[in-house]
Amino acid sequence: MSSTPLKVAVTGAAGQIGYSLLFRLASGALLGDRPIELRLLEITPALKALEGVVMELDDCAFPNLAGVEIGDDAEKIFDGANLALLVGARPRTAGMERGDLLSANGAIFTAQGKALNKVAADDIRIGVTGNPANTNALIAMTNAPDIPRERFSALTRLDHNRAISQLAAKTGAAVTDITKMTIWGNHSATQYPDIFHAEIAGKNAAEVVNDQSWIEDTFIPTVAKRGAAIIEARGSSSAASAASATIDAARDWLLGSPAGDWVSMAVVSDGSYGVPEGLISSFPVTTKDGDWEIVQGLEIDDFSRSKIDASTAELAEEREAVTELGLI
Ligand code: NAD
Ligand code: LMR
């Protein structure tokens, strides 16, 4: 592996997710021993708090942290970045749906898309965690016409991990026995966590569970509404688990998904599985060397079809809304 530091930009670095994400990135959770350089973007009023976080990063004396730069100017911070993790955006609070954040957060991603387009490294990969993640990624992608569309993704890995954890708890399997989990659609309550293609120690997961009402009435809503349940319990939105999933997604994207398995990523649709072209929708993907490919040929029954269609219809509505807002 190269020993040149990877330049990793993180936005919203002084926020809740940032407070977990930066330390895990710096300690090697992304790339092991390969050094990284952190480029941290915040809004001006949060720079002082960010300075405090950087003091703590210094105090960890991480051997593979090759440098940290902070600032409030996206063009300076993204300059030469190889990986941009776009976390900075307002989180929803109790009672809100993620779609309520469209106008509040959308504008952030027009500016950041333009800045990335101008100054990021040629091999840039961009992962969007800030909500509404899929449509924010669409906004950034549309505002960065010189960056290949395949370089943008939105985070549904947290949903994927949640689905694995719920299935493991139901069946008594180890999380490591569960493969081929899929999240389809939007990172929202309409998402479709699909266990019909998942496997538990090589056996079809839906057959092992053998309980359609658990799948429909417990599993799917528990995964899809987990973000709200955490807000309700914690008083603020998921942070450490979101940071962990952000790293899982970026690591697999750069280094490759495990052999014989796939991961869920929201990526630009090429029309596969009837998902309208151009939407950023979650699919089962395999990844290798910074590229992804949608897993093809999965059989979609009527139940799955209606779930996928409902979530992608919501994504199409979000696209219309941000078009009307002039963001794309
Ligand atoms: P937070 O409010 O603690 O932190 C957000 C940070 O972003 C703040 O420090 C803020 O100053 C900064 N920020 C705002 N505008 C910015 C801009 N233009 N440039 C740079 N930084 C900016 O929020 P959080 O808990 O860290 O969550 C961040 C986002 O991630 C929220 O939108 C949340 O809903 C989302 N989220 C997504 C997932 C997912 O699975 N996709 C999971 C959890 C949270
Ligand atoms: C989550 O899934 O935990 C985040 O997207 C936060 C939220 O608003 O649900």
UniProtKB/TrEMBL annotation:
<dbReference type="InterPro" id="IPR010945">
    <property type="entry name" value="Malate_DH_type2"/>
</dbReference>
<feature type="binding site">
    <location>
        <position position="112"/>
    </location>
    <ligand>
        <name>NAD(+)</name>
    </ligand>
</feature>
<dbReference type="InterPro" id="IPR001252">
    <property type="entry name" value="Malate_DH_AS"/>
</dbReference>
<dbReference type="InterPro" id="IPR022383">
    <property type="entry name" value="Lactate/malate_DH_C"/>
</dbReference>
<dbReference type="InterPro" id="IPR001557">
    <property type="entry name" value="L-lactate/malate_DH"/>
</dbReference>
<feature type="binding site">
    <location>
        <position position="98"/>
    </location>
    <ligand>
        <name>substrate</name>
    </ligand>
</feature>
<keyword id="KW-0816">Tricarboxylic acid cycle</keyword>
<keyword id="KW-0520">NAD</keyword>
<dbReference type="InterPro" id="IPR001236">
    <property type="entry name" value="Lactate/malate_DH_N"/>
</dbReference>
<dbReference type="InterPro" id="IPR015955">
    <property type="entry name" value="Lactate_DH/Glyco_Ohase_4_C"/>
</dbReference>
<comment type="function">
    <text>Catalyzes the reversible oxidation of malate to oxaloacetate.</text>
</comment>
<feature type="binding site">
    <location>
        <begin position="129"/>
        <end position="131"/>
    </location>
    <ligand>
        <name>NAD(+)</name>
    </ligand>
</feature>
<keyword id="KW-0560">Oxidoreductase</keyword>
<dbReference type="Pfam" id="PF02866">
    <property type="entry name" value="Ldh_1_C"/>
</dbReference>
<dbReference type="Pfam" id="PF00056">
    <property type="entry name" value="Ldh_1_N"/>
</dbReference>
<comment type="similarity">
    <text>Belongs to the LDH/MDH superfamily. MDH type 2 family.</text>
</comment>
<feature type="binding site">
    <location>
        <begin position="12"/>
        <end position="18"/>
    </location>
    <ligand>
        <name>NAD(+)</name>
    </ligand>
</feature>
<feature type="domain" description="Lactate/malate dehydrogenase N-terminal">
    <location>
        <begin position="7"/>
        <end position="149"/>
    </location>
</feature>
<dbReference type="InterPro" id="IPR036291">
    <property type="entry name" value="NAD(P)-bd_dom_sf"/>
</dbReference>
<feature type="domain" description="Lactate/malate dehydrogenase C-terminal">
    <location>
        <begin position="156"/>
        <end position="324"/>
    </location>
</feature>
<feature type="binding site">
    <location>
        <position position="162"/>
    </location>
    <ligand>
        <name>substrate</name>
    </ligand>
</feature>
<feature type="binding site">
    <location>
        <position position="105"/>
    </location>
    <ligand>
        <name>NAD(+)</name>
    </ligand>
</feature>
<feature type="binding site">
    <location>
        <position position="92"/>
    </location>
    <ligand>
        <name>substrate</name>
    </ligand>
</feature>
<feature type="active site" description="Proton acceptor">
    <location>
        <position position="187"/>
    </location>
</feature>
<feature type="binding site">
    <location>
        <position position="131"/>
    </location>
    <ligand>
        <name>substrate</name>
    </ligand>
</feature>
<protein>
    <recommendedName>
        <fullName>Malate dehydrogenase</fullName>
        <ecNumber>1.1.1.37</ecNumber>
    </recommendedName>
</protein>
